[in-house]
Write a structure and sequence with these properties.
alpha+beta, 5 helices, Bifunctional nuclease domain
């Protein structure tokens, strides 16, 4: 059974005192996933292709993936329970003999970091997307005021 998903992108990042707000969505709706400040910075670096002095944890994971011929196929943010988002990381390994797909539970922040690093698609389950509060106006106001939320 394949559930319906909605394609989204990371539309903005806003550092805050207690964490970092990731604005995730599309032209119809944008919602916020709060992550640790360091994760917000890491995701921002991947989105902007910022060179790093030393490899970070997600760089290491990506290099391990490369070594084993594994790529991120896609990320799906699946659910929201007790103010916590849940996600699935879908990986693909292909060699001369076969193609293998593995689906793992993972924190949305880790999924988004890996998707940003490999420039892979991000999706949200349709029921979750219908449920989340639209934060498009907040993102638009921040972008108009020259806030740090713009991510292209």
């Amino acid at each position: 059974m394949k559930s319906e998903v909605v394609p989204v992108q990371i539309r903005g990042i806003l550092p805050a005192n207690s964490g970092c707000a990731l604005f995730v969505g599309n032209d119809d709706k944008v919602f916020v996933i709060n992550v640790e400040p360091q994760m917000g910075a890491v995701i921002g670096m991947f989105l902007r292709d910022t060179p790093k002095e030393r490899p970070l944890t997600h760089d290491l994971v990506n290099r391990i993936f490369q070594g084993f011929g594994i790529t991120v196929e896609r990320v799906v943010i699946t659910d929201l329970k007790n103010s916590t988002y849940f996600a699935r990381l879908i990986l693909q390994q292909q060699n001369e003999v076969a193609r293998k797909i593995v689906e793992l539970d993972a924190r949305p922040s880790d999924c988004l970091a890996l998707a940003a690093a490999q420039k892979k698609p991000i999706f949200v389950s349709a029921p979750l997307f219908a449920q989340v509060e639209d934060m498009s106006e907040v993102l638009d106001k921040m972008n108009e005021s020259g806030g740090e939320a713009e991510v292209d």
